[in-house]
Amino acid sequence: MEKFYITTPIFYVNDKPHLGHAYTMLLADCIARFKRMRGADVFFLTGTDEHGEKIETAATAKGLNPKEFVDSISIQFKNAWEKLNISNDYFIRTTDKNHEDTVKKTLIKLYNKGDIYKGTYEGWYCVSCEAYYDDNEIKAGKCPMCGKNVVRKKEESYFFKMSKYEKQLREWLSEDHLIPEYRKNEMINFFKDGLKDLSITRNNIKWGIKAPFDETHTVYVWFDALLNYLSAIGYPDENFGHYWPADVQIMGKDIARFHAIYWPTFLFALDLKTPEKMITTNWWISGKEKMSKSIGNIVDPLNFADTYGLDQLRYYLLKEMTYGGDANFNEKDFIQTINNDLAEELGNLLNRTMVMNEKYFNSEIPKPEKQDLKETADKTVKNFLDLMEAYQIDRALKEIWVLVRECNRYVNEKKPWGNEEERGTIVYNLIEGLRIISVLLEPFMPVKAVEIRSQLGVKNHSFEWSGSTKGKNGARTLLFPKIDA
Ligand SMILES: [Zn+2]
Questions:
Q1: Do 280 and 256 touch, CB atoms closer than 8 A?
Q2: What separation in Å is there between the alpha carbon of 126 and the centre of ligand 1?
Q3: DSSP reduced 3-state for 133
Q4: CA distance to 18, 308, 309, 319, per residue, from 480 (Å)
Q5: For 156-197, what is each residue's pLDDT tens digit?
Q6: Euclidean distance between the first and the last CA atom of the chain, given in angstroms as a whole number
Q7: What DSSP letter does each residue of 186-241 carry, written as one string?
Q8: Which residues have C-beta under 5 Å from ligand 1, the single-atom ion?
Q9: CA of 291 to the centre of ligand 1 (A)
Q10: The whole model's pTM is what?
Q11: What residue ranges define each of the domains in the chain, with the CATH number in brackets?
């Protein structure tokens, strides 16, 4: 059985789950569900990132100790993913003991190998990003990543010899691992003046994992966090290795460089394989700006799922975000998409097909003379599978609508109500077309997909067109109620 290891970033617990987090989870969930349908042994990982200065500060502000604080936020992420019907296999926390053990054992390995040394770090520090920048990196005295103020810091630190792996990193980046591909040059540009060694400990931060070779130092949060992808599957124990390397790692574009630059070099140093693919997602914009807590334009995905339906939300988000650029979340547009794509085009197709079958064939699926829609269905399935295998998720979803629209065109053209001769064939083709549509939709709308087949009274969930589907339609209910705009 083919194994398939997919990860989301572990989310930083200084904030509650927002639309950006939810989209990343839905994208990973859609891919994981698709791979399971294809028979793969899937391990889908997510979790929370819980150490660092920002967390310590946020906890103090709330009068809590850091552990109490991270417990209270981490559970919100876990609950949110349950509510969004996310099918992750494991939820890791960087405060888990097995993770802390992995970080320490990994550091000892690298230390013994001679890849870690003690030095002094001087640079511009951004508290928000928990990252250091050089003079030439900061922009008008501000952080180049988040635009906030930076402070000059000089401290004793242990360094990882990242520079040693520059050649390997360049090679890796030149291969086709990044999706979208244009991210590649962006990454190479980050170290156009050469890859520097990386400061991996801090001696002024308490909330974190202690460096095993010097307990006065705390491990840098990114070094700690990235290792979750290994600790979750048992590194460095003997049972580790079944799922590694990761097949797909998903992350927002703002943290692409930690994943596409630091992470592979850690893996080179550990003599481990590197991930097959990394997908970097763009941002959700609301109004004209990136959603952020400070601007106050955050969209709470759970509210929208409650108001308009979970699978409706899943459909809209997975359709709207492309690899081409940032996506705009707009409630009006969301409602219009539900009414048009889901209620009109798909829901109405199911409803009218079942009404006709009830009227003319007592809801028994009729026998066809011809397979009129087979050709379109076969083509849609083939294109869909190719796009899904290439992780072109929004395009795969849009491809399903080629078949939806062809079904609608077919019924309007054939007019089965006045076409007694072909009536059985037409209704059969619509039912089989809808069955295929439901199978293709399953990774996107898992509940509605099953509901379509249950209304049709068919169980077969193969991607292949069948010329002999039998059964009796079940109860007819409105699949996607229209929303008053
Ligand atoms: Zn910053």
A1: yes
A2: 5
A3: strand
A4: 25, 10, 9, 17
A5: 999 999 999 999 999 999 999 999 999 999 999 999 999 999
A6: 48
A7: HHHHHTTT-PPPEE-EESS--SSPEETTEEEEEE-HHHHHHTHHHHTTTTTSTTTT
A8: 126, 128-129, 143, 145-146
A9: 16
A10: 0.95
A11: 330-456 (1.10.730.10)
